[in-house]
Amino acid sequence: MIPNIRMLKEMLEKFVDLKIPFETNIVLKTVKKAEYTPRLSLKLKCDYCGKEITDEPYTYTLYNRRFYFCCPICLREFKERIRTLDRRKKQS
Ligand SMILES: [Zn+2]
Description:
- The chain has three helices and four strands.
- Helices cover about 50% and strands about 15% of the residues.
- It has one domain (about 5-90).
- The model has no long low-confidence stretch (mean pLDDT about 80).
- By secondary structure, it is α+β, with helices and mostly antiparallel strands.
- The strands form two sheets. A two-stranded antiparallel sheet has the order 1-2. Strands 3-4 form a two-stranded antiparallel sheet.
- The chain binds zinc ion (ZN).
- Zinc ion binds near residues 46, 48, 49 and 71.
C-alpha cells in the first residue's frame, strides 16, 4: 500500500499535474487488482489517450499505482511527461 503521507501527497500532486482523475483511478485500482486475470473481462482504458485497450495492456507502475496503455507510444509519452514534470519540480 502507500508507504507514507508525504508520498501520497506527492502522488496526488502528480495526478493533478497530469490531470488524472485520481479518485476514479483509486477505485479502479481496487477493482483491477481483484479482477485481474489473464483473460480479463474488465474494459481497460489507456491512461494516456483514453482509448479502450483491447489487447494486452502495456503497464507502468508509479507510486504503487499501475497505469495501463494501449500501445508503446502512449507508454513512452506518459513516461516522458512524468520526466518533464520531475525536471520542472527540481528546477523550481
Ligand atoms: Zn493510448
